[in-house]
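FORM 7B - TANDEM STRUCTURE REPORT

SECTION 1: FIRST PROTEIN
SEQUENCE AND TOKENS:
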Amino acid sequence: MALVVAGYGWESEAWSRDYYPEDLPPDWRFDYYVNEFRAVLLPQQRWRTADEALVARWCEDAHGQFSFHLELVVDGDEQMVRTLLDEVVLRCRWLGGYLGAVQVVLPVACPDWVYPLLREVSGQLPLSLSVPEGGRLEVARLPAAISLCRQAGAVPVCSGERPRVVTIEAMHDKRQLRRVVEALCATSGETETVLVSDDMVTLRDARTIAELLGC
């Protein structure tokens, strides 16, 4: 399965200066983005403000191979996270066949109530868990139908048969970026892996490296 590169949204202030044509209206930026990329990770604050009509417009503008992945940050108490999950389930329903995965960003110390909550929704949502470096997680308590990506130094380690969503910082050292891409390609198998960054140079370099590796 090919490695897919994706932006962390498409509305970055830096991209408005360095990526989009100066005379391109803001409403056309998504159309411009989907002409180059096959996926996007919607930041939590972005999908939460999107109503059904806007999501339908995104889907209409996207091409058939495009996928939307949604970020969900576990921050706060159980009730707050349950509310987020209810909201993300609704957005996933609106996205229909354009849905990729829900990237669940876990804290360093995962609260006990997270495990049963993940089991509750794992049958409804394609979950990709993101564990920070040094994160403490009881893997045996997780549902089987998920993917898991751990930050282990500069190279993330992923497993699982659901789509995997991996977010990295800007990485302009091409040798280091190649190590990341090689590691993700080596463990992907038939599972789609989505490499996310908000840095355009990193995205384009990662895509080039993946193409050269035949990934």
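SECTION 2: SECOND PROTEIN
SEQUENCE AND TOKENS:
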Amino acid sequence: MTGRGAADSGVLSPFAALCAVALLLCTGLAVDGAAKLRAAGRAQQVAAEAARAAAQAVDTRGPVLRIDPAAAARAARAYLHAAGLQGTVTVTADRTVQVTTDVTGTYLILGPLTGHTGYTVTGQATATAAVGVTRAGP
């Protein structure tokens, strides 16, 4: 018996190439997908904390407790700045403030393969200033 014939040479190469591409895509989905999920969580967390900071900027000079829009915007922007992000702050009612922020990132593996270099995820949160102690349920 002799070794492989000339007709068998290189038969495994296309299969190995396809497996390598499939492995690269799976790795890219895992790595870049996890990074995008972390960025989405960070955007949401920072927006929530900035909204909480803004909701504490209340105007106590009047008979009714209200959020001071200018102080709330300053407090939220200060938190966003400390987190290294930018966002929008909107006082939506007397005691409610809404913060929206974006987090951008780059695809490490899938970017060069797909041509999409980066992504942007948005976090949005609303906080309401409460007076006194409230209880859920009876």
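SECTION 3: OBSERVATIONS ON SECOND PROTEIN
Helices lie at 12-55, 69-83, 110-114.
The chain has a mean pLDDT of 87.

SECTION 4: SIGNATURE
Preparer initials: ____
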